[in-house]
């Protein structure tokens, strides 16, 4: 660590020795930011990305170990499990309605879409559950955080190359991944104002900006409390995440950044808060000065009114949403079954998307899934005694709340990088919740 961050935590606040965290779990977390979301195993389709396959493998191992009595699945109880269970139950209910034809459109295509959504929810549940069960100390949490951030750093490097050199290294990945094909749908480059915004390995620049904002608090936590690895690399990862938010030129990314920083800063140590307040203007100035036109382009995007095509399209979709909900109010069209052929009909709001596809039941499940982990994380951060654990819980609350807020501005769970990053944060937030309870009850009783 450098001199200033080293003063933030005393030796007694440093991370204890780590216990083994499954390699498969760490590989899954790292892969989220490394492997392009558009490259899939063709027979499987959209659910055949590398991170999805690894997450489903995690689910298979967890279920097998439960069936063989190798672990107690009920031992690690935390709000994140409640949240993802609500999403899973609402998904199953809507899928059942779809399969019996109650939604009015049970075809091979709609059933396949429902199956893909169900696989995503199962993968998400696996990450939420296994992350919390595997992390038994702050050091274990740090190992998972490193894996998640290292993958995100690769994604940011791709975005930097795209933004600076106007070339797309994602195209080269296909040659290194035999058996995978481009599933399409990704938009690595999108013009906005005087610049072209980029996506890294994500599906769209919006997704890149939001995910980078969600992970920034964890990067700040690592800067303060994690001695493993080179300090310059920690700083580089943090700077890359901030640059990714800027390079996405996304209102959603800026909104996510504001929420993430606003929530996480109060839970940092006093010295760390001072460093953030001092360094933030310098970093922002450096980013805007190094990229001519960035400030004016981003300012124009943020200052847009209802005449802006993006905003006008969102507002224009509300009457269509009302009509679809009136037709199937309880369980919707079926999970994953809002598939507009016209880009102008994309809802750009996950809550509305869930309302249309899974009805009022799905909307409740989605709200609980996206919002409850952040609120629980805030409670854990407020009650934690250890500075490192308080900051960790606050960082995870910040990331999940940023995701929940930004889900108002894009259909977040339809984007594979966000859809797997979020449950990873929920699982780690559940682990922090359990660690805080251990502080309150040293004997480990619940």
TrEMBL record:
Keyword Membrane: yes
S-adenosyl-L-methionine listed as a keyword: no
Top-level taxon of origin: Bacteria
Subcellular location: Membrane
Transmembrane segments annotated in the record for this chain: 23-41, 53-70, 82-105, 117-135, 147-167, 198-220, 240-268, 275-295, 351-372, 392-410, 416-436
Keyword vocabulary terms for this entry: Membrane, Transmembrane, Transmembrane helix
Name by which UniProt lists this protein: O-antigen ligase-related domain-containing protein
A GO term from the CC aspect: membrane
Domain O-antigen ligase-related: 240-365
Chief subcellular location: membrane
Organism: Cellulomonas aerilata
Membrane topology summary: Multi-pass membrane protein
């Amino acid at each position: 660590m450098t001199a200033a961050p080293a003063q933030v935590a005393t030796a007694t606040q440093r991370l204890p020795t780590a216990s083994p965290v499954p390699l498969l779990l760490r590989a899954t977390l790292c892969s989220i930011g490394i492997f392009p979301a558009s490259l899939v195993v063709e027979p499987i389709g959209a659910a055949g990305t590398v991170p999805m396959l690894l997450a489903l493998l995690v689910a298979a191992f967890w279920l097998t170990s439960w069936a063989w009595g190798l672990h107690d699945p009920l031992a690690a109880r935390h709000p994140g499990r409640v949240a993802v269970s609500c999403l899973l139950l609402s998904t199953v209910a809507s899928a059942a309605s779809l399969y019996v034809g109650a939604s009015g459109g049970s075809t091979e295509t709609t059933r396949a879409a429902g199956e893909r959504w169900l696989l995503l929810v199962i993968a998400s549940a696996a990450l939420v559950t296994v992350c919390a069960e595997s992390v038994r100390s702050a050091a274990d949490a740090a190992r998972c955080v490193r894996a998640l951030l290292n993958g995100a750093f690769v994604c940011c490097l791709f975005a930097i190359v795209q933004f600076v050199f106007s070339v797309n290294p994602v195209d080269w990945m296909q040659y290194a991944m035999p058996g995978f094909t481009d599933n399409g749908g990704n938009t690595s480059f999108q013009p906005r104002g005087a610049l072209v915004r980029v996506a890294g390995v994500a599906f769209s620049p919006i997704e890149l900006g939001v995910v980078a904002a969600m992970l920034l608090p964890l990067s700040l936590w690592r800067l303060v409390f994690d001695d493993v690895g080179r300090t310059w690399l920690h700083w580089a990862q943090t700077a890359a995440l901030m640059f990714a938010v800027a390079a996405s030129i996304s209102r959603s990314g800026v909104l996510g950044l504001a929420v993430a920083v606003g929530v996480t800063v109060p839970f940092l140590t006093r010295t760390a808060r001072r460093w953030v307040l001092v360094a933030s203007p310098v970093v922002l100035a450096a980013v805007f000065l190094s990229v001519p036109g960035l400030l004016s382009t981003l300012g124009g995007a943020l200052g847009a009114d209802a005449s802006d095509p993006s905003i006008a399209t969102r507002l224009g979709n509300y009457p269509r949403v009302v009509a679809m909900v009136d037709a199937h109010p309880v369980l919707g069209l079926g999970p994953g079954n809002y598939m507009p052929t016209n880009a102008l009909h994309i809802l750009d709001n996950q809550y509305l998307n869930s309302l249309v596809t899974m009805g009022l039941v799905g909307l409740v499940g989605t709200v609980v899934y996206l919002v409850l982990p952040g609120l629980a994380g805030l409670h854990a951060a407020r009650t934690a005694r250890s500075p490192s654990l308080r900051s960790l819980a606050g960082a995870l609350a910040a990331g999940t709340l940023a995701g929940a807020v930004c889900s108002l501005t894009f259909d977040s769970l339809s984007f594979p990088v966000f859809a797997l990053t979020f449950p990873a944060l929920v699982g780690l937030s559940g682990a922090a919740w359990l660690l805080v309870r251990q502080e309150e009850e040293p004997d480990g009783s619940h």
